[in-house]
Design a protein that fits this description.
Length: 303
């Protein structure tokens, strides 16, 4: 019979890409991971891994086994959720991951509601970049996470996760108040300096794609990931930037927000099969209700 712990290691190798990364995620040594995967391969009776140069990749049989593993792990999550639901009350530790703007805007009201309605819950919040959330959910560092993508840069669904849509936000072009824009504001910023996220982040990708959709590559002067700092630089005349609605919740003097036909989409994610866990369900409900406490961005009428 195949060992579930070894199957989990194979699944994580498919997502993380290297044995070293799997070892780090599980606090194992790389040699221990290699030994466990070799044992799994013997149990399976067919090659699951192959060496490509210095890297280890999955064979077609290994890839197919990972697909079945996602279903097996989801079934175990469902079983765990069923047992938790049979116990009295909502209790235990819930590790919540959120990106910075969500920590400032969505989470406070949800945490207050959860502490009031479910005092036996022990809530732990970690601020992470959304790209880190899926791995943290899969390896158990998080139980619930706020993740996002953009309609112009969609992220493929993760087979190991379930999610509930939470919020669609308008994305704004933030410009100094003296900056003139017309019917096509992004095109009007063709010659402007830009403030964008660090290369490799989703925010940087979105800024590049939005500009490329208007026929140019942005001239990025500053790489900044915090939207409060981004707005401060725009107010100082250092460039223009894309800012989603939550990032524009605190108005900044000297900045004008021009709404675009671009949307950032936030969802509540958790391990597949875990939605019936009482603590997970309570967190989802509180986060869905937290939208009512959101401030609206200060968007002056267009002149």
């Amino acid at each position: 019979m195949l060992d579930v712990r070894r199957l989990r290691l194979l699944r994580d190798l498919a997502h993380l890409g290297t044995i070293a990364a799997v070892a780090q995620a599980h606090a194992y040594t790389p040699s221990a991971v290699s030994q466990q995967l070799a044992a799994l391969q013997r149990e399976a009776g067919v090659p699951l891994l192959e060496h490509t140069g210095r890297r280890v990749t999955l064979t077609p049989a290994g890839t197919e086994l990972v697909r079945h593993t996602e279903t097996i792990l989801a079934t175990l999550e469902t079983a765990s959720a069923t047992l938790s639901a049979a116990r009295a009350g909502v209790s235990g530790t819930v590790r919540i991951g959120a990106f910075p703007t969500a920590v400032r805007t969505l989470l406070p009201a949800a945490l207050v509601a959860l502490a009031r309605d479910h005092p036996a819950l022990d809530l732990m919040v970690s601020e992470l970049d959304p790209v880190e959330m899926p791995d943290a959910l899969r390896d158990g560092r998080l139980d619930v996470a706020l993740v996002h993508d953009y309609d112009i840069a969609p992220v493929a669904p993760d087979p190991g996760l379930d999610s509930v849509p939470l919020l669609d936000e308008t994305v704004f072009l933030a410009v100094p108040t003296s900056f003139e824009t017309g019917p096509t504001p992004v095109a009007d910023a063709r010659e402007a300096a830009w403030v964008a996220g660090t290369p490799g982040t989703l925010c940087h990708t979105v800024a590049t794609r939005v500009c490329e959709a208007h026929g140019f590559t942005p001239r990025v002067r500053h790489h900044v990931d915090d939207f409060t700092a981004v707005l401060a630089l725009v107010a100082a005349g250092q460039g223009v930037a894309l800012v989603p609605e939550l990032g524009a919740a605190q108005p900044c003097a000297g900045v004008r927000l021009v709404p675009l036909e671009v949307c950032r989409r936030t969802a509540i994610a958790y391990r597949r099969g875990g939605g019936g866990h009482p603590a997970i369900a309570a967190c989802v409900a509180a986060l869905l209700a937290s939208q009512d406490a959101l401030p609206s961005p200060d968007v002056p009428p267009e002149r």
